[in-house]
Amino acid sequence: MDLETILQLAGASLRLATPLLLACLAGLYSERAGIFDIGLEGKMLAAAFAAGAVAAVTGSAWIGLLAGIAASVCLALIHGLASITLKGNQLISGVAINFLASGLTALIGQNWFGMGGQTPQLQASQRFLGISWPFVDRLASVPLLGPLYRHVISGHNLLVYGALAAVPLTWWVLYRTRFGLRLRAVGENPAAVDTAGVSVVRLRYGAVVIAGVLCGLAGAYLSTAMAAGFNREMTAGKGFIALAALIFAKWRPWPALGACLLFGALEAIGIRYQAITIPGVGVVPVQLMQALPYILTVVILAGFVGKAIPPRAGGRPYVKER
Amino acid sequence: MGSGAGDLAIELVGISKSFGPVQANRDIDLAVHRGTIHGIVGENGAGKSTLMSILYGFYQADSGEIRVNGKPTRIPDSLAAIRAGIGMVHQHFMLVEPFTVLENVVLGAEDGALLRPSLAKARAELKRLEREYELDVSPDAVVGELSVGLQQRVEILKALYRECDILILDEPTGVLTPAEADHLFRILEHLKSEGKTIILITHKLREIMAVTDAVSVMRRGEMVKTLTTSETSPAEIAELMVGRRVLLRVEKAPAVPGPAMLDVEGLRLVDEQGVERLRGIGLTLRAGEILGVAGVAGNGQSELLEVLAGVRPATSGSVRLKGAPLDLSRSTNAGDRREAGIAHIPEDRHRRGLVMAFDEWENSCLGYQGEARFRGPALTLDRTAIRDHAREAIERFDIRPASCDLKTANFSGGNQQKIVIAREMERDPDVLLVGQPTRGVDIGAIEFIHRQIVALRDRGKAILLVSVELDEIRALADRIIVMFDGRISGERLAAETDERELGLLMAGIDLVEHAQTASN
User: What was the ipTM of the complex prediction?
Assistant: First the structure.
């Protein structure tokens, strides 16, 4: 494996990690506020469909993006209504959202476009495309720096950079602002927030809506940046992988970036190397390579990476005693 | 103390609050003078905490008016209470454990969208408060790692940081060591000297006498009376707390005590918070007698019952049943006790005695479902046998409505209690532990339950009766021990004592220090 290949892999990892990272941060806001969000997958899927469909109809990736965010926020509000206002079970609400998104996107997609649930192929102008940074060619001859600049730093679309910027931004919001302090508090002990004179309900809705916006970005990325249109079930479990990354990262922003990059890298390797020969073992089948991110998810969720302590009030609706 | 309405910091008029069918506060009036320490006493469940939670905006009253400094004030949430200058230290602390002291203090009282200036200001302010009130606690310590005493200081600092004039403390000493409690009282005195008003909720009479200027007594959701502390006595307060009720009469012959069934020696229990709940209990329970355990709620009676019943392990000490030692460690459970012949009617039938969502017949065998007579083929239960058994119990204990297919939650309190009593008495246990047998039970059922308990005694069984109803103890028990602060503060024969003497013992005062012949 030469340097060029490694750098190309790194770039691909970054692109593959982007939807995971956005969904992971979405889960981070929600769960830090005490609302478990198993519906990341469903929100992403709905957003991917809405973005793909609207971009195809209007011809604008940007309007598609807004539509994706709107669809995702709608589902987030349903989750909020069920788990904050009606004090229902958050896991069941999340599962319902996943089913709802899976069924509705296929149904509406077939009804509108009649293409078996797909949306029409998007033209280049209807998608978020990679942006070549200045001087890529001129730097190409510089050893190390040139290829690094070309493959890893330059050439991604706006959403990739946006996702990366969201990490320090989330850290700053969480640990340096009043909103962040209250958000973290409400996930640990909502009664303390309530008795301090702050509305638990408003805070939790705020967190859930932020999660909706981020999932909207993640979904739109799938259908209008990574692919050129929406396919049925195109999220393929990415919402759950993001959830695993969130647990792996112990609900912290920087480790979330690391965990998502790891998953992204595994996926990139699985795509690039259809068959790897390990000396003495033989050929590793392609299926195993592609299953790697999912296997890691199971390992993480089974608790093999150390004890992850979730926000203490997570999953429980806030009911005053009695 | 001052006089005139202008001096009132808090005035509550006609406050009522119910939770479903439970009336927690009924038409409460309360006047608290500015610059005083005002105690509110009452047994557990008397409605003290509910009343204060209403004042702090945690609950909303169904009716009534709150006046703060003479002004009618609506307090729909805690923010309104804080704005009105009211601070509260809850019984269960309202702290975010992974946060630092500083973050906890600032939470909800930030100055702007960014944290840094708020934290800096709070740090300076905390330093001042610490110096002024000897409330030293490191601002950067993580709250979850602090002792409960220090956590309480953080709660007080939170209230002071919000510049409260009126501070409510709900059972503040329940989790404190005596030294910590004394320190707390010094702080309260200091706050009072600065003109702040303090409301102290407690059920400990010692604290009331030591620090308060006035004391209001609550009983069963009602305000009984407000007294000036210097003009009252623990005995009077204890009497008001417990109440003089119509004396219950139970027909019973004198007891014929037989051999010792249960021997308890040096029983100690230290709970999860490190508070010593039982401080060396020793007693002997004989066959054919009812031993009453009296005391103001929260003095260790519940814990004694739970340890004997195998619900929680003891820290040290020994218990012998008919001479054979019982396992008091964590590895034992209530099932073992039942097997050994100790039945238990728990104090709280909803939490410990019944599964409210079950049908009556299911509850009628709960805990005994493993017995051969209830077992069907393989791993199944013999529903026919259980239901026949349930119908028989319904008949014998006059449980109404007489249907074993009804959901338990749909029975009245008295009939629910009868379901538990029928189940526990039915196997003729050698020892019956009874906790609050008639709490929330109607008069008719009370009589019936009392007769059943006496009948079991007359069959030569040993009965330990824990009740906060002094009348019930006096009506049923042959011998009475009084618990105070985890110890037995006195023992009397039921026939040779009166309410006044028991009331004093319940307040921890033993006038007759002569050694009562321990019946052994």
Answer: 0.89
